[in-house]
Amino acid sequence: MPPPTVVSRSFLFSSEPAVASKLEAFARLSADDRAALAEATHNFRYVEPRRDLISEGDKPRFVHLVLDGWACRYKQLPDGKRQIVSLFVPGDFCDINVYILKAMDHSIAAITRLKVAMITPDEMSALTSERPRVTQALWWHELVTAAVQREWTLNLGQRSAYERLAHLLVELYMRLNAVGRAQDGRCDFPLTQNDLADATGLTAVHVNRTLQELRRDGLIELERKQLHILDMERMKDVSMFNANYLHLDHEGRHLDANA
Amino acid sequence: MPPPTVVSRSFLFSSEPAVASKLEAFARLSADDRAALAEATHNFRYVEPRRDLISEGDKPRFVHLVLDGWACRYKQLPDGKRQIVSLFVPGDFCDINVYILKAMDHSIAAITRLKVAMITPDEMSALTSERPRVTQALWWHELVTAAVQREWTLNLGQRSAYERLAHLLVELYMRLNAVGRAQDGRCDFPLTQNDLADATGLTAVHVNRTLQELRRDGLIELERKQLHILDMERMKDVSMFNANYLHLDHEGRHLDANA
DNA sequence: CGGGCGAAATAACATAGGTGAGGGTCAAGC
DNA sequence: GCTTGACCCTCACCTATGTTATTTCGCCCG
After folding, report:
1. β-bridge mates for residue A116, sequence order
2. Whole-angstrom Cα distance, residue A35 to residue A18?
3. Percentage of chain A with pLDDT > 70?
4. Quick check: A83 and B154 CB within 8 A?
5. Cβ pair B150:A85 closer than 8 A
6. Residues A63, A96: contact at Cβ < 8 Å?
7. I need a labelling partner for B169 at 20 to 30 A (CA). Which of A48, A152, B175, B256 fits?
8. Rounded to an integer, what distance in angstroms lies between the CA atom of residue B41 and that of residue B117?
């Protein structure tokens, strides 16, 4: 008998499949489960930065799954204002059932160069009909996505610019950590200050001011698309961050001690 | 053969079961489908205004379905600030799969006196395993709920107070109209200015100012918990309202011409 | 029918964050 | 080695919205 495959989680920016990694935050998956996921994930493409994967008005045909890189959902107003309503990092699905809708009510765009799986409705239902644990995990994923969206609503409605940015940075760090792409307070961070502005409902000027403040207060370093959270405890404090909405507390899941 | 049952939709504030009505915005349901829904909806209770149905930290045990009255989801920050992150009107489900989570990350409270069905996980899976159209419709419901949450994110992030309030009023009118509880620009509107403040991320004072402005501009009347939208077209215009996110355009659905 | 109370309305003043414009840096491409 | 274009950073000024406080309204209840 060959020794069991050990999947390492210990390297920063690991290239381990993020999907399985993310779903395992909720449920232990069997080798077969993982294989089925890998199978469904077979068909992928690359999207260049700032390009739409799918645009408002399009008929959705696939479930998308981010394999590598970052993407965002955004909505645009007739007066030109744009809001990034969510961010996708590796391991994130974009709406497990979208294809039952007639038309997209928002667009999804790549932020970095993006590797994204395209799963057909048929493949999805094959997956869910045969693999109950995966199905459960997918539901969990949807619930967490909804919870994140609610937290963003809270973030925009009630937190100051300073708190809001801090909160976003912590959230992204935690989500990356959960898929093995962040550690020791450090992670890739490809968002420009403009993106941050669109995500937080602030102006780029004010995002700049506020990042300076976070730096001055010794909370973060952020340059060259690298984020370093220097003091996680204080960051959580000032942003009133409560990780409960990420629902990561499952089945002996071990998180970065620093997270 | 008996004549087909005709369900009237034509009365304002009709007491027709809102559930079926809402789900039929997406799919035609058979008599059996409706019966199964009625069955699952059997077990209900009343909740007094301002009371929590379920609180942050609780283990969710039921799927809730609003049969009558209004409710809201809210999140509270340690500094006391409170954000209403969504509103429920008759026919709305509160998270079809919540019970797979360990703990609620937010609370749900009654706004008016509330009649709410409590559906057990078992009843849910009975429903979904036997009634594919209902299952589809429930998925659609979840997708719409997510879309509404995104629109709120956009609303808070990019619209001015004036636009934001106008948008919220139009949205609620449309949603009520879709379940037969609004017509000719009129509907019940039990939210206080404080509730509106918590939902829009504004202060009560500014909500008051802004409502005055909407009145002065001849767009709405609002008193005694009754809303009258006087000029729907202009309201949609000023709030940049695009109904696409409600995904109501299905299978010959007929909407209030005024909506 | 009068007291009490939640909600709505106003007012005077304060500030977080927006606006518009300009300059600096760095890497990519010719 | 120059141009171009993202991106980041700063400044001076402005305004939408927040704050605190007081008054008024409408309604329930004894």
Report:
1. A45, A66
2. 14
3. 90
4. yes
5. yes
6. yes
7. A152
8. 5
